[in-house]
Amino acid sequence: MRILIAEDDAVSRFLLNKYLTDLGYDVVMTKDGQEAWEVLSSDDKVRMAILDWIMPGLNGLEVCRRVRERIQTPYIYIIFLTAKDNLDEVIEGLNAGADDYIKKPFDRNEFQLRLNAGERVIRLQAELLELLDRARKAEANLQEARRNEVSVASRIQSTLLFGKPPETTKSLEISALSIPSQEVDGDFFDFISPGRDAVDMMIGDVMGKGIPAALVGAATKHQLLRGLNSIPAEPGQLASPDKIVSYAHEKVTPQLLAIESFVTICYARFDETLSRLTFVDCGHTKTVHYSAESGKTHYLEGSNTPIGFLEKEEHEQFHVDYGEGDVFLFYSDGITETMNPNGDLYGEERMCEFLVNHCKLPARTIGKRLLLEVQEFREKEAASDDLTLVVCKVDSKQSGKVLLEQSAEFASDLDQLNSV
Fold it and tell me: What's the pTM?
């Protein structure tokens, strides 16, 4: 270990050098405070310093203060060697940053014990620095793994969880939008045109976050799609929404119970011939229906629990008629539970008021402006959940038109959303 001696007395400097060299130290000798400071500020291999208190130019106390003022690693263990024995002066030296002191003339055995104590402190500090370095590397690896997880989950969401609305419908304009949070969630939606003048829509949310939640969402959506194609139906008829949801429930509930998770779902079918919506709600956020005839909104709420709550459950479907200009809003709880810096939730009431005030706009514009309003309400608060939204507007003028880019994902900022 390299040790510095700062001693202006030549005899004392010689004796200290011989004594420390005999103990196996790599000794650097300096004759005053200025020379000692120049070495200490340039030689990072010096780990201990023996400073005489009184020296010409810079004294030992000033050298000690300068060393401690620097952001220095590794740590330099400082021992004052002094004839001073006044307690106040000793305290002054320790407050300046000294680790120990020994009086002149020194006892060799006592001096060696104090040097040994200094070596222990230096070793402990080196071990601490190594542990901190390992912790920083582990944190960096964790962050990299997290970025990889988010990237993988983003691909899962875009390819497996988020479907695109049908390009043509008889009377519906459909827009699906999603803004991901910083964490990966299990929100999903999809659309099917199972028969003439019929559009099926599903939206769901998995309890939990991360890739496991995304995979559960993908598996649940897959079983809903399989149910539509696997359930026997009368010629010319479609499997009903309640039977489709029951099919998916039977397939995924055992796995959900095993992992103690659940999925909220709303499965809805628009019958464009009858102008009727049939839906099954399994604990999902309440769908908002704006009626152009009454100019008011009301909630569509079912009677079933989330899939994964109960091993056996009969699913019940409900019906609501709709007319020209009506708007249906399907959404995740990330929208209504968005919180501003004051701790206030955006809530269902604000959302319904927004829909009434913007009901005349196209579906895509309604969705975009609602997400903008939620983002602005949140201000600088970090998003804790995905903002997922499906807007279905009854507009017969859209008949025969191709609705392109009606499903989109946006980054968690206003600028990208403003660009569309």
Answer: 0.65
Strand-strand pairing, 407-409 and 296-300: unpaired
Residue type, 219: A
Q: How far apart are CA 225 and CA 201, in angstroms?
A: 10
Structure tokens at 72: 């220095």
Distance in angstroms (rounded) separating the CA atoms of residues 416 and 420: 7
206 Cβ contact list (under 8 Å, min separation 6): 185, 186, 187, 188, 213, 214, 216, 217, 220, 261, 262, 263
- Our separate counts of H helices and E strands in the chain read 11, 16
Question: Any idea what DSSP says for residue 236?
Answer: T
- Placement of tokens 């990237």 in the chain: 151
**Per-residue pLDDT tens for 286-324?**
999 999 999 999 999 999 999 999 999 999 999 999 999
User: Which H or E run includes 301?
Assistant: none
* 3-class DSSP assignment, residue 298: strand
Three-state SS for 410? Answer: coil
Closest to 172 (Cα-Cα) out of 245, 269, 267 = 269
The string of pLDDT tens digits covering residues 272-291 is 999 999 999 999 999 999 99
The answer to whether the Cα torsion of 247, 251, 257, 261 is positive or negative is: negative
On whether the CB atoms of residues 408 and 176 are closer than 8 A, the answer is yes
Are residues 199 and 272 in contact, defined by beta-carbon separation less than 8 angstroms?
yes
Work out the number of other CB atoms within 10 angstroms of the CB of residue 65. Answer: 14
